[in-house]
Amino acid sequence: MDSISRIRQHFEESVQTKIEAMEVLAEPIADAIEVMVGCILNNGKLLACGNGGSAADAQHFAAELVGRFEVERHELAAIALTTDSSILSAIANDYGFDQVYAKQVRALGQAGDVLLAISTSGNSANVLEAINAAHENDLRVVALTGKGGGVIGELLYEGDVHICVPAARTARIQEIHLLTIHCLCDGIDCLLMGVEE
Q1: Which CATH number characterizes residue 156's domain?
Q2: pLDDT tens digit string along 72-98?
Q3: Which of 13, 51, 153, 154 is deepest in the core (most CB within 10 A)?
Q4: Which helix (H) or strand (E) segment is 46 a member of?
């Protein structure tokens, strides 16, 4: 297959996966927006974590809220737990990599906050531990997964929100995770500010 055909195939698969996911994910994304806006209106904060590309997504999400998405507004409290190399390396060295997010959730999270837990497989050990820590401290969880949801799908409580991309290929799941993050940011702005366009 030549490069042009292969690129076109990626685009076609991405579009098709998004169309298929739209019907499945619209409702849980809307539910997640309501959970996050409720948190913000109660002076809570949003914490986000993930690994690799999902770590980048966590940082992207926090940046859009602390800065802005598409319209000017006041800053919103969001923290990516993926960014402090001293904290990450100290916890990984002293306790194990599976604790790098859980200990931050316990330190920074308060009842009523929300954890955005991102894992394409639904099986990332450190994200699972972060969810356990969130539940121990009365945080709600919005989980972004794929591949059937993995263990994360089994860990969630009533009141948590599971946004599980109906796809198996990591690249397609990550593409929909990014679109979902943009939907979350847009929805948060719309509910907080009444943005219609």
Answers
A1: 3.40.50.10490
A2: 999 999 999 999 999 999 999 999 999
A3: 51
A4: strand 46-49
